[in-house]
Structure formats: structure tokens, C-alpha cells
Amino acid sequence: MRPDQDIGVPHGDLLLAFAETIIGNDRMALDTARTALADALGVEAISGASAVAGNFTKNDRVANALGIPVDPPVLKGTEELREQLGLNGYASAQNTFRHM
Length: 100
Hints:
This protein has helices at about 10-20, 25-40, 45-65, 70-75, 80-85, 95. By secondary structure, the protein is an all-alpha fold. The chain is built from six helices and no strands. The longest helix has 23 residues, at about 45-65.
């Protein structure tokens, strides 16, 4: 992600920075991002941003459980990344490959 990207919402840079830190393992960076969000948007912004991030994760898990395949353009654009991360080896990856 690029926290300097203008996403068209107030304090979008802080929201992007928060999103980046919640998928990482740097606790100090996460605390810093939380504090910045709270200072700029209020403490409610932390729970709101966390809920949005959690919802995206939930949607991915539901899609995997249902067997919804990944679209061909996404597959093509992620070949190298999927290989590097070993994603093709997951059982749920077969949901995509059987529809190709």
C-alpha cells in the first residue's frame, strides 16, 4: 500500500497507514497508527477502521468456503505472488483452478 495515495477521504493517509500496520507484526507501528487515528478522527475511528478491515477478511473466508473462484484477470496478475507465498498449495485454491 501507499499511505501517501489520495483515497478521497479525510485523513486517508492515516487510514492507509493503519491498514498497513494491522496486517504486519510491528506492534509499535500499530500503536503509532492507532494513536494517529485517534488524534485525528477520535477513538471511534479505531474501532470503525478495525471493523472494516475485519469485514474484508471475513468476506475472503466466506468466498473461500463457498468455493467462489478468483477471476482470470486477477489470477494472471498474481501468478508470481501466489507462487512466492505458496497460495496455490492451499486446498481452497482448487476452487479457482477447477473453474479455469
